[in-house]
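Appendix B. One record, verbatim.
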Amino acid sequence: MPEFQVLRTDFLSILSLIHATTTKVALALKPERPQHKAALEPLNNLSRRVAALVHLVLLMRSRNALAVQKEYSTVARNILDAILSLSSTLLSLQSSSDLSSEDYLVRTGGVHDLIDEAKKPGRLSINNRDAVKRRWQQDHESLVDALEEVKELCTAREEGDVDDVADDGWDELGLEPSQPLTPDELERAEAVSRMPFQRSGLKPLQILALIKLTTLLHKRVIADVLTSGIPPLSDGCLDKLDKLSNDILVNSDDLISSLHPPQHLPTTKSAFSGLNETISSIYKILYPPQDAENLEQRLASVNLADQPAAASKSRKWFETCSQQLDNARKKVVATLPDSPA
């Protein structure tokens, strides 16, 4: 079985060949003066190269690195769809009387653009960890935006800026404007964390502490696990992390949406539970439990002095973050009626 880097090199080489071949096909079959005989060879070459591209993607799939093969599969599928569109356009133009149509040039340019984009330096991941990192970085931007949404929600109510909250444009659509948070709803949205997070410089602000800490955790996974490789993870674990990033984003969005007045507590509880489960799954991947011990027990039993400095520092950070997340969780639970702490 070829190494992934060999497959990746072959993948890019085939893309270059397809780029050149589609140009030859388009020139040979241009509607104003088609050269059908001259088009036979480039069409045959295009068919072989498309088949080779599909074969490479299938080889990548067999390597059980789902995140990176999914990325390459998506690129290949988009290019093949563009080639199919070009083929359909060329066929239709051969039987059309509109010899001035330049649709085939647009379709050819579409194939070229996709290939040029895929071949840009750094565009395609070099391994599975790199592919997962890209997904987490994309999701992190949305997670930061979600945190800002909670800040604005809490700040508007704290400053008594009721007019700004109510006058949000919904009345222009014939819908009821948003209502300001009630004191109980505000307390639930803020869930203030009173313990400073020394290593990150976090200060006790009146915002949703759980979302803030979740955002910090998400950022640290990118920096330590997906950039520095601490702790090192198998492709199988990386594939699980690939999905969990999206789970964090979805659950966070659901939780934040449920905080807008009037709040619907069952939705809030469901989103809160989903976010907790996702965070727990991330910790289990980073530091798998042994003999049914929970994360805090295992971290407390580790002699950090016996680990490399970078690994020790990283593990200590995740230990502190876990404790802070637990504190934030308890504060949120305390604001939910009929919810045990």
